[in-house]
User: Fold tRNA(Ile)-lysidine synthase from Microbacterium rhizosphaerae.
Amino acid sequence: MHRPGLDPAVAEVRVAVRRALRGRTGEVVVALSGGADSLALTAATAFEAPKHGLAVRAVVVDHGLQDASAQIADAAAAAARGLGAAASVVRVEVEGGGGVEAAARTARYAALLASTRESGATAILTGHTLDDQAETVLLGLARGSGAASLQGMAPTSERDGIQVLRPLLGVRRATTRAACAAEGLQPWEDPHNEDPAFARVRVRRTVLPTFEAELGPGVAEALARTAEQLREDADAFAEMIDETIEDIVEHAEAGISVSAAALAANPAALRNRIIRHVVAAEFGTSLTRVQTLEVARLATEWAGQGPVDLPGCRARREGGRIVFAAG
Assistant:
């Protein structure tokens, strides 16, 4: 008897999840919204996890931002149970500044982290895809926020001591939709994903398709590769910074000091990262590029200029050192 082969989209999602689960123990939490990406992820995790001796819990966060959100969340949880995963719904209130998107993300992660700790799970899996990665890189490029933003999302990161896994960063959104269709799963279509009031939606619906039309296919994949390469560079820089700081940084009264000669001797990319790292570590604030370059001039273009006022501190030249002290 001929047995139908496994659908290619289902296979691709399962392979991605299998790699992320390798070597893990206990229970994992899947962040499930009911959309195609998280639904395909939940299906693949429910299929793969038992092979690794893992339990799976889908957590659906109801933000209460839309009509019938409670029913939508309950339906998503029911779909997860139908796939063989445990499931729970967490209702949250979305409040705070920075816009609805940012406030919803904050509330969502707080709920996911709390559920993960409560269940004793070892990691959270999210359904971010290659398309999400490409959109993140484009948004970072538009903001001009430097290499840190252009790195996009890492396949594995940590949030408040809990590992966050993104198995689908190499999988296209079209593939997750195809996987849902092949498995007879009906994803929920979030109307916010069609609302041009959100910058990410404009990138998804207008900017990326225009790039693809004008420059040819493969733009999203190229942006994702760029993010991966920048993360590799950032990891290398982080190691270099840790090694360098041990030799050139000393504690000073009410702050910290850095050798001006050592800063000047380093390449600009490393010099600027050291300055930003020192200020962030000591005073908990971030510097703009303009502020960073002004501090760097105290080492590279020293001509007796006065101190540089920074968020939470002040940098000044004292002999052969640059001293950062509380402002």
